[in-house]
Amino acid sequence: MYTVILILTCLVASPFIFKQIWDTSSAKKNKADKKEPKVIAAETTVPESEQPTTEAPESTEAEEKPTEEPATKAEPAKSDFHFGTSDASYFDDALFIGDSRTVGIKEYGYLKNADYFCSVGLSAYKIANEYVDGSTISDKLSSKEYGKIYVMLGINEVANDTEYTISAFRSLLETIREYQPDAVIYLEGNLHVTAAAQTENITNEGIDALNFKLSELADDNENVYFININEVFDDETGSLTPEFTSDGIHVLGKYYETWCDWFCANTVIYGDAPEAETTTETVTDTTEAGSEEYAEEEQYYDNSGDTYESYDNYSGDGSYSDDGSYYGESDSYNNDPYNNEY
Amino acid sequence: MVFSSLEFLFIFLPVFLIIYAAAPSKYKNLIILLGSVVFYSLGVKKPVYIVLFLLTNMLNFIVGQFIEDSPKFKKPWLAFGVAFNFWWLIFFKYWTFGTENINILFGADLPLKDIILPIGISFYTFQNVSYIIDVYRRKTPAERSLINYGAYISMFPQLIAGPIVTYSTVAKQLQERTHNIRKVEEGLKTFTIGLGYKVLIANQIGGLWSDISMIGYESISSPLAWMGIFAYSFQLYFDFCGYSLMAIGLGKLMGFDLPRNFDHPYTSLTMTEFWRRWHITLGSWFREYVYIPLGGNRKGSGRLVFNSFVVWLFTGIWHGASWNFIIWGLVLFAIIMSEKFWTGKFFNEHKAAGHIYMILLIPLTWLIFSITDFHDLSVYFKRLLPFIPQKTYSILDKDYLKYLLEYKTYFIAGILFSTKLPQKLYEKYKDTVVCSLLLLAVFWASVYCMYKGLNDPFMYFRF
User: Fold this and answer.
1) Interface touch B440/A5, C-beta < 8 Å
2) Residues 104..123 of A with a Cβ closer than 8 Å to B: which?
3) In this predicted complex, what is the ipTM?
4) Which residue of chain A has the CA closest to B8?
5) Could you give the residue numbers annotated as active site of B?
6) Digit-coded pLDDT (tens) for A12-54
7) Residues in CB range of A230: below 8 A, 6 or more apart
8) Domain boundaries of chain B, sorted by first residue
9) Which of A95, A216, B179, B318 makes the best surface tag, with the fewest CB within 10 Å?
């Protein structure tokens, strides 16, 4: 009896399941094929990027500030500001929008005075229709006037086509502007994953490419700034440092304090920049773990600048963003066969 | 390849079963052997491990015959066979651990090799050894057909995660066994229950354990820390028990009666009883081939303590090459000895006390089992006991409520299916239509979870 109905239902369902298995394995193959040129491109940048670090170690402090250099240089309209330190009250009128990483900031960070619109698995595609604690993003944005809005999304989107993702971000920015025309918007670069946690779909290269596009998006828009947390948590290879995480994707609860320190130290302040180093000191002193890694981070920074340039070239020849064959096979973006939501 | 994967359920298994059913009786064992080699090849990391696996089995097959054919030299042959089998297990599983510790102890600088463990080696080594010892003891005649022996060792249902089937339990079935629709029905049902345990309970409640690791042990409240070890205990049980049930079910489809591996361990009153009900085939292996040959309990209590010590040390080490497994084994040894001499009688007579004792103690021992890093382990222990002074970090207010709400269904399911009630109901109603429909729902719910990619890698694969 059980045997018969089981076999019958299996026969009915098997076409769907075979399709799923086929999609999964062919998706893997596609990604594998594509990886090759990426790897080569990344390798060529390594020798160049090593040079500045070794030659001028004493200059690293001075270079600390230009973390967001691409953003600041590109747009003359934004030149009259700098990133500086504010105290926690700065976040009284802040809203954080994001996925599970922002959930971590909400739950384990100390910026309890801020508002949050975040849930595990949130993405730029879904956000327009998603309910978080019973309200939509529009409800949240119309509930009060925010001075600053932080957005960190992208880890759930990074497997898909970058252009498509950026267009989703663009419409999110439009939505925010509609309700909050004067707010400072911070587009946050997505946190890297550890080298070991990279999969066919989620690589630090992909994250960097998306982050780079986000920084460009910030440049193109008035009062939108790009900030990138990876300088704090990266190891020397440009991946999330394994000691800071257990799953390779989220930092441990205790490091959200470091993250919040970094938020405080990287607020947009209008007017001329004072001494550049001051920002560093605040972060350094707060936690032991943070300070240990900070030295490494300073060295790394030069690398990351070069990496960005290489992505620029890469998208230039068209092969990078042309990611269509993979998602084209599944019905919609949400139907990701791996379905990992962060 | 794991049983709880779409590829196994919808490609490998149907293809194998069709060929198996179509083959005439005398080729069925050959089909099992070939199918299992294919199954093994799909899961193994290096092709050379397939060769190692086949050669090891062939060598044990030959050694078994030598032991039987030349009684004069049977001791050296046995020694050679046991040494050969354990050499590979030690090499692959303990070499890195050993060199690391020698380096630390003597300040030596021996090179560390990154050795990948061949899948299933802990299990097939134990089966091969049990076979040659049984032949030596004349408990069973040596197998004369390489195909039968190969089918016994490599039989894919039990190849990579047990149960550890001794040759003597299946020797007759290898020669002759019946296939009928009742067995197939029974097998599919057992398989479905195991699949449900694994995918619908273990994988789901395991999410809490990964959430806690993600947060970091410093940043969890004490109630959440306790919930965490209960969740881990459920995950471990339903994962491993589910896998064993799937193996038994698959065995039935091929006409085999594989031994039961779990008998409601969480309903035990003492740790001694728990280990008679948990991973039964491993426990009986150690009893049969280590504890009794050492003299068991027949040489006075001093010797009994020593023999138990050896068994639990080996049990610990068998589960993994790391100090926490050794300590875990020794903690179990201490608990079981204290039950033997002092507490056991009390808990057996006072059932409520026994249950409470076990409910608190089992998750604590699993904690030592699960966390390999001693610093992390001590942090977790302190979180369980908040009155111990400790450095605290930011903790989410009422984090336990958040996770209790998220995981309550799985906790309820975990508690319910740890009791004997579901099995009693199953035995009574298993031939009804309602039961078939329920199992069908379990099967498709599991497939749906796999389809959505909610499936986790099988935990016991580390072993």
Assistant:
1) yes
2) 107-110
3) 0.74
4) A21
5) 319
6) 888 877 877 777 776 666 655 554 444 333 333 334 344 444 4
7) A189, A191, A192, A211, A238, A240, A304
8) 6-176, 183-462
9) B179
